[in-house]
Each structure stands twice: as structure tokens, then as C-alpha cells.
Design goal:
4-stranded antiparallel beta sheet, globular, 95 residues, single chain, two-stranded antiparallel sheet, alpha+beta
Length: 95
Amino acid sequence: MASLIPCPHCGMRPKEEFTIRGAVPDNRPAWGTPIDDPQWFSAVYLRANPRGRLREHWYHGAGCGSWLIVERDNMSHAVYDVADARARGLAGDRT
């Protein structure tokens, strides 16, 4: 059985249409922040791999082209919430 993601713009879509960017919030430094090479290496390559419920940025590349915030459980594959990341950002949600 295919995993389905409820895109807020396109409806239920197979997860293969999406690309996962990473956790929300991510560990990248703020734009324009001066950092050295070890800090860049850490921000780009070293990431936690937690189990259970988490929030991630997903890109709907084979659909509407929107960035989404998906809250899901990576053990049970349950999806709890999907929201348009831009709409959340405009509403002041930076987490």
C-alpha cells in the first residue's frame, strides 16, 4: 500500500511526488551570518536522525511545487498534519 500525503493544494498524493528537505526548524545558520568551514560542514552534513514524531520541510515537485511542513511519525508512517510552509511563514510560525 502506498503512503499518501494530504497536500493542502492537490489533495491526497503518493509520497513519491515529494522530496524531503529536512527537519523544521533546521540547523542552518541565518542568512548572512558569518560562519567558518567547520560550522558549514556541521550545518550541511551533520543531522540528527530521531525516531518518532517529527516535523519536516517537504517539496511537492511532481505536483503544485509548494513547500510544505509535514508532521509525521517516521516509525509508524502516520501523518498528523500538512500545511503550506509559506502560509505558516506569513503567519509568523518560524518553528
